[in-house]
């Protein structure tokens, strides 16, 4: 029942909340706005809205628009140098989870010497502590995927070593302010709405069945699962359905908070290995691919039968009576969202690399394996990949 909770981020949630940015106590006078290397934030007007709000607040801005779907260490280092060169005293992360994650690493490296991997725990990282506080961050999320707007972690890929590792931890990496405005999410395409929604779902599912789960994390996790189960299909089918967008965004924010209270399990380590070698693979898509085999494995171990039944009911299967009902509810949701046909082979993943992926998962983010209620061996990990493959 024990837990510790500290989430210092001020959350502004709801339609139109981006218009409140200018009235907030901002942490500086010159901001680097960080966006993706795509066109969405420019095309849908969110960049223009953010720039106007900052202008109203008397904040000068520069733009860094190079973040990719799986943000790279090299891009982080480029962004940090750009922030220093332009004398920026805070960052505005405007976009999805990749932008949030990259911004935390950029904020750290803008004020600290050396290479990002000097401060990464796991893999070839040196695990040094940050000597200087990162630049403050304002997070404006335009997707509902990882909840990164309310936690102190980000995931970065090292393109030199094929490592994808979580970075962060210090309280100073929590965003000062998080704006969760569902109106900014209405133009996300159906496919990515589904990928992101399932990522948020799995954060809460994993934290609910994880060994560190507690009374507080259970409350956040189950509420997030209920909201995903009730509204994700609607958000996928009609991106302009603002009520559905609001509830999925709410679930996403809860799923970010729950990770500060419990912990993701080895499923996330396994997927990070997949996308570390295959950068075009969206994180949520990779999680969907392995989810059925992964959770079935733990159901067969009977690690927490009652929790799987509770999650099945939270997903809408009110007559759930056995753990495998969760798998039935999960598969139904994937079918309704049109993501049940995802294939590893479409992203270049081959069966002969399964053990390489297993070893990478354990070497880079082995800590998440300790959140599993029973140990997961290398052979069992490889078997999950094999059962998921097509």
Automatic annotation (TrEMBL):
Location of the Fe-containing alcohol dehydrogenase-like C-terminal domain: 193-362
GO MF: alcohol dehydrogenase (NAD+) activity; metal ion binding
Gene3D superfamilies (UniProt xref): 3.40.50.1970, Dehydroquinate synthase-like - alpha domain (1.20.1090.10)
Flavoprotein keyword on record: no
Signal peptide (residue range): none
Alcohol dehydrogenase iron-type/glycerol dehydrogenase GldA domain segment(s): 8-182
UniProt KW keywords: Oxidoreductase
Origin superkingdom: Bacteria
Protein species of origin: Candidatus Choladousia intestinavium
Protein name (database record): Iron-containing alcohol dehydrogenase
């Amino acid at each position: 029942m024990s837990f510790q909770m500290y989430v210092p981020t001020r959350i502004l949630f709801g339609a139109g909340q981006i218009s409140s940015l200018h009235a907030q106590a901002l942490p500086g006078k010159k901001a680097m706005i960080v966006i993706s290397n795509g066109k969405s934030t420019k095309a849908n007007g969110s960049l223009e809205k953010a720039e106007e709000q900052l202008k109203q607040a008397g904040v000068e801005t520069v733009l860094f628009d190079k973040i990719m779907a799986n943000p790279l260490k090299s891009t982080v280092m480029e962004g940090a140098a750009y922030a220093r060169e332009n004398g920026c005293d805070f960052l505005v992360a405007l976009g999805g989870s990749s932008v949030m994650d990259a911004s935390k690493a950029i904020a750290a490296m803008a004020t600290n010497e050396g290479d990002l991997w000097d401060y990464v725990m796991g893999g070839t990282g040196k695990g040094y502590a940050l000597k200087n506080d990162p630049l403050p961050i304002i997070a404006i999320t335009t997707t509902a995927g990882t909840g990164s707007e309310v936690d102190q972690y980000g995931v970065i890929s090292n393109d030199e070593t094929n490592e994808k590792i979580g970075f962060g931890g210090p309280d100073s990496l929590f965003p000062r302010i998080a704006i969760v405005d569902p109106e900014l999410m209405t133009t996300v395409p159906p496919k990515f709405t589904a990928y992101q929604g399932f990522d948020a779902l799995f954060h809460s599912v994993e934290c609910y069945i994880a060994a560190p789960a507690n009374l507080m994390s259970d409350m956040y996790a189950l509420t997030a699962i209920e909201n995903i189960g009730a509204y994700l299909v609607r958000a996928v089918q009609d991106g302009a359905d603002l009520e559905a967008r609001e509830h999925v965004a709410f679930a996403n924010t809860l799923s970010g908070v729950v990770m500060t209270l419990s912990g993701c399990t080895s499923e996330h380590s396994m997927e990070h290995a997949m996308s570390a070698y295959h950068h075009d693979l969206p994180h949520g898509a990779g999680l969907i691919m392995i989810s059925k085999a992964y959770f079935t494995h733990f159901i067969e171990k009977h690690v927490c039968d009652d929790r799987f039944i509770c999650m099945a009911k939270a997903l809408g299967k009110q007559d759930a009576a056995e753990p495998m009902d969760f798998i039935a509810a999960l598969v139904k949701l994937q079918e309704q969202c049109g993501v049940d046909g995802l294939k590893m082979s479409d992203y270049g993943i081959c069966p002969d690399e399964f053990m390489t992926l297993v070893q990478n998962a354990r070497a880079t983010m082995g800590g998440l394996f300790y959140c599993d209620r029973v140990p997961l061996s290398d052979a069992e990990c490889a078997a999950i990949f094999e059962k998921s493959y097509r």
